[in-house]
Amino acid sequence: MNVTATSETDRKALRFAMTLSLVIGCLMFVMKVSAYLLTGSAAILSDAAESVVHVAAVFFASYSLSLSYKPADEDHQYGHSKIAFFSAGFEGAMIILAAIYILYESIHKWMTGLHLDNLASGSLLTAAATLINGGLGGYLLWLGRQKKSLILEANGKHVLTDCWTSAAVLVGLGLTYFTKWLPWDPICGIIMAINILIAGGGLIRSAMSGLMDKADPETHRQLVSLLNRETAKHGLSYHALRHRNVGDAQWVEMHLLFPVGTALADAHRTATAIEQLIEVSLPPRAYVTTHLECQGDHDILHPEK
């Protein structure tokens, strides 16, 4: 089995992106709290609360990214990359907690009385935060997909969720400013909370799929196509194909059945060639294990298969 490590260039790019996310997340929190202190808006307070959750999630994501690069050891013989799924699940849970808080605050402020000040200044700060988060979220999502990093991709989705939250705040503040009807503010907060709940649920489902080793249909299709072609070319057959996403790679296992009389050295050479082809065909990389069997007595030795 040939294991290809993530390049140091990719690691530096991912670390830089995570650090940038953390720094900008802290800046966004300061801007949104300032906007809330100026306006007293329930929607802006909700947006600021989501930023607190985001900063906490980025800290965990940053730790997860570093841990995922740690090589296999005696206690973790398959490595540490599955932390990516825990990170995505944690981020999803944090988003859901933020949504619940936003719902509570929006309803509470609506019931206890509404009062808004300095809407223009608060809107400018919120607009600036929206633009910055939109650019950052797009960059994180693009880089996460390019480098096949679930941790960075989840963080990018969280940042974009924060961006859409801020955009919804702007809509609510605009409606309040032009119509003078104050309930637009908490209504906007409630709508944001529902949207955030959906986003958080999506991240948790993604994390659960990875932790439960749910097979990816596209990966399976690609593997079957490749194996059908290669085994036919070498006069072989295969079965017991299994694969799973381990966070930053695909782990693939299969049995290769060789014709009677094939020399072990020849069989091993052919199996290695197929393994190497799979490793370079599945992005970002794959770990492949094959089990060599003889077609002649396979059914006798393994009647259940």
Strand content: 5-15%
- Alpha-carbon distance between the two ends: 25 Å
Tally of individual domains:
2
List segments where confidence is low: pLDDT < 50 over at least 5 consecutive residues. Answer: 1-5
Q: Which class of the largest domain in CATH terms?
A: Mainly Alpha
Rounded to the nearest angstrom, the radius of gyration is 25 Å
Largest sheet: spatial strand order: 1-2-3
- Overall SS class: mainly alpha
User: Share of helix among residues?
Assistant: over 70%
CATH H-level homologous superfamily name of the largest domain: Cation efflux protein transmembrane domain
Total number of strands:
3
User: At the third CATH level, what is the topology name of the largest domain?
Assistant: Alpha-lytic protease prodomain-like
Anisotropy-based shape: elongated
Q: How are the elements arranged and paired?
A:
Elements: H1 8-39, H2 42-68, H3 83-112, H4 119-146, H5 150-179, H6 184-211, H7 217-234, E1 237-245, E2 250-258, H8 264-281, E3 286-294, H9 298-301
